[in-house]
Design brief:
The protein is mainly α. Helix content is about 90%, strand content about 0%. The chain contains 8 helices and no strands. It has helices at about 1-40, 45-60, 65-80, 80-95, 100-115, 120-130, 135-230, 235-274. α3 (about 65-80) packs antiparallel against α4 (about 80-95). The protein starts with a helix and ends with a helix.
């Protein structure tokens, strides 16, 4: 019986010792966290990191402790580990029992989402926080700020869309203009080229015609020169025939003259006899 009692006392003392160690880690973490918060000149990431380490040591013993998990999420947020902090706050938002605590967790969840430019998510988290605590002015301000950023982002996106649309329109217009200009220039070049080719062809044809005319003229001249001596030249036979014809004509003429004289003389005698 004494032995069992001794064991119970020993277990109780050991449990108290472990509990004191866990709270010691939490106290150390809280001390480091508050020291870093008080230094407003800079973000003391070293102390926040050390506070995170202390909180994790405590949570190794009591992982379901909501307050210590909340402190860990805060330390992560202060180190700008927004994705890790978002995960922790999301878990806590489902587990907190009191409305004020749920409002505080959703408020901080909205902050982590806002820092990551998750505007829709942050707006929804702030709205959840206000449903739990409608009078929280800081949450109202953060909600209005997130909504303003969303509206500004949408306007910028629309402006960029319109600008890209106008830019594409102008680009297409310039491209079509350049294409039409190139086409017109090409057509003009082709027309000039065809005109030059036609002109060259006409001149070539003209030269060819002149050359043909000159050649025909020279050929005709040569033929005339060749034919003229042939026409002027009379063969011996032709000359004898021509001479014989001339003699026959002369003989006929002399005979006619003689006959005319004889007839005249006869007529004269006849008149004398009368």
């Amino acid at each position: 019986m004494r032995r069992i009692y001794f064991i119970l006392i020993l277990l109780t003392i050991t449990g108290i010792a472990f509990g004191q160690n866990e709270r010691k880690f939490v106290r150390n973490g809280n001390k480091l966290f508050m020291e870093a918060v008080r230094d407003t000149t800079k973000i003391d990431s070293v102390k926040f990191s050390n506070a995170e380490t202390e909180y994790r040591k405590a949570l190794e013993k009591r992982p379901e402790d909501l307050k210590w998990n909340y402190n860990l999420a805060d330390a992560l947020y202060k180190q700008q580990k927004f994705e890790d902090a978002e995960g922790k706050f999301s878990e806590l938002a489902e587990k907190m029992e009191e409305p004020v605590e749920r409002a505080r967790v959703n408020h901080n969840l909205g902050n982590t989402q806002l820092m990551q430019e998750k505007l829709d998510e942050s707006i929804e988290s702030y709205k959840k926080a206000l449903r739990e605590n409608p009078d929280d002015l800081e949450t109202k301000y953060n909600l209005a700020y997130a909504q303003m950023l969303k509206k500004k982002k949408e306007q910028q996106q629309q402006q960029n869309k319109d600008q890209n649309k106008d830019q594409n329109k102008d680009q297409n217009k310039d491209q079509n203009k350049d294409q039409n200009q190139d086409k017109n220039d090409q057509n003009k070049d082709n027309q000039d080229k065809n005109k030059d080719q036609n002109k060259d062809q006409q001149e070539q044809n003209k030269d060819q015609d002149q050359q043909n005319q000159d050649q025909n003229k020279d050929q005709n001249k040569d033929q005339q020169q060749q034919q003229q001596p042939q026409q002027n030249k009379i063969s011996k036979q032709d000359a004898e025939q021509l001479l014989q014809a001339l003699q026959n004509d002369e003989r006929d003429i002399q005979d006619k003259v003689k006959k005319a004289k004889a007839a005249k003389a006869k007529r004269t005698r006849s008149e004398k006899e009368w």
